[in-house]
Design goal:
alpha+beta, 10-stranded mixed β-sheet, two-stranded antiparallel sheet, 11 helices
């Protein structure tokens, strides 16, 4: 309301005072409206400039915002914002030159298989770059941990990633030749390659001279040939590992009564020998529910010690008891993760019509081809150049198989095999 509405009409000097006051009030109201309009326009302009600065539009000729048209790159970026999918990758690799499978967080000095894989996933556009620093963001899990120098023909990792086209080919294009992704499959959202794994199968390729008597001249190892009777005895010894045993002597830092030291072995045997590079080799296969650090190498090392005559057969039974037994650890060179098994998962989800069975029959040719091209030649060549088995066999005299292992013996053994191990879970 105008403040002059209640004034009485008075004439002073021939002019209407109330009329003048009304005119002045109207002028003030118009000015007020103009100021408010200007302020609103300024605020709208400021908002428009801010939106332009933030990249959400452009100012047109009349100061109006023209909406920005999305490019193909923008659309592709938006598509990647959708939830990633849980998959498993089948991997094969030669472990020579790498410090195992598992990534060493915050360390670039010791290159691992996972370092190469994560780098390739980022470059291929399967995961965001920031996931490389925190692998938990992609729910990454390996089925089995392999240590320095250990190879794999059937490693399986689970993770969340973007399902890009030609995913296997693109990932492999950024990997070195000795590391390959051989297949992938979609899995349930809660799948964990380590926890869902029922069993693991390893192989161990070694020169057959490892089973020769201790007085055999290792300088002539290429001429050694394994007799059928000797192979039969080897397999009889390996068969004693089958079943549930207390393997506290076959790893480190495990107390005899620690329940986790009890492991279930379903298969262990040595196959027929064959000749590679002029020397005879054989492959030992072992399947178990799970394995501890160095367990497989110590299982093989103890049988070799018995075959060479450094220990009696009764040492096997004694090693499963509570006393501490000095068990030698075979070299890590020939150890290969052959296959991982998901029997329970396949039984529950493999026939639901939605998920695939985690079996790799279609990839078997690729797996064998990789072993023939990268794993076997590396083992044969390295053994010929370094003679790791012959060097290790020379240390068997340091072990006392009749008495408990002393701290000195353990320190010597640790020094001889430093940084090596199967590292299996």
């Amino acid at each position: 309301m105008c403040p002059t509405s209640d004034l009485p009409s008075k004439i002073c000097g021939g002019q209407n005072i109330k009329g003048r006051l009304l005119e002045g009030c109207l002028n003030k109201c118009v000015g007020y409206r103009w100021m408010m309009s200007t302020e609103c326009e300024n605020m709208q302009t400021a908002k428009s400039l801010k939106r332009v600065e933030e990249g959400s539009g452009d100012l047109g000729e009349n100061g109006h915002i023209s909406k920005k048209v999305k490019t193909e790159e923008d659309q592709a970026a938006d598509e990647k914002k959708y939830p990633k999918k849980k998959v498993v990758l089948l991997m094969a690799y030669s472990g020579k030159g790498y410090y195992g499978m598992q990534r060493n967080a915050g360390s670039c000095k010791f290159m691992t298989i996972e370092d190469e894989l994560i780098r390739a996933l980022i470059k291929a556009g399967c995961i965001p770059e920031n996931h490389g620093d925190d692998m938990k963001k992609m729910s990454f899990q390996r089925c089995a941990r392999t240590d320095k120098g250990v190879s794999a023909a059937g490693q399986v990792v689970s993770l969340k990633l973007w399902l890009i086209e030609e995913i296997v080919e693109k990932i492999n294009s950024y990997l070195p030749a000795q590391i390959r992704v051989l297949g992938f499959k979609r899995v349930t959202g809660g799948f964990n390659s380590k926890n869902n794994c029922d069993a693991r199968t390893y192989s161990y390729m070694l020169p057959s001279v490892a089973f020769a008597p201790k007085d055999y001249d290792t300088h002539n190892s290429a001429a050694f040939r394994l007799e059928p009777e000797t192979l039969q005895r080897v397999n009889r010894l390996f068969a004693q590992y089958k079943g549930t045993r207390n393997f506290h002597n076959f790893t480190s830092q495990k107390a005899p009564k620690d329940p986790s030291a009890r492991r279930y072995i379903t298969e262990m045997s040595c196959g027929d020998p064959f000749v590679r590079g002029g020397s005879e080799f054989a492959v030992i296969t072992v399947r178990g529910q799970s394995f501890m650090m160095h367990q497989i190498r110590k299982m093989i090392g103890l049988v070799i010690a018995v075959m060479k005559g450094y220990a009696g057969e009764e040492v096997l039974q004694r090693s499963w008891g509570e006393e501490k037994v000095d068990v030698p650890k075979a070299p890590g060179l020939g150890l290969v993760l052959e296959k991982v098994h998901f029997d329970r998962y396949n039984k529950r989800f493999g026939g639901d019509g939605i998920h695939e069975r985690l079996e790799w029959t279609q990839e078997e040719d690729s797996i064998q081809a990789f072993k023939e091209e990268h794993i076997y030649p590396s083992i044969v060549q390295t053994e010929g150049q370094e003679g790791s088995m012959a060097s290790w066999m020379a240390t068997l005299t340091l072990h006392d198989f009749e008495a408990t292992a002393s701290g000195l013996r353990e320190d010597k053994d640790k020094k001889l095999d430093e940084d090596e191990g199967d590292g299996s879970d």
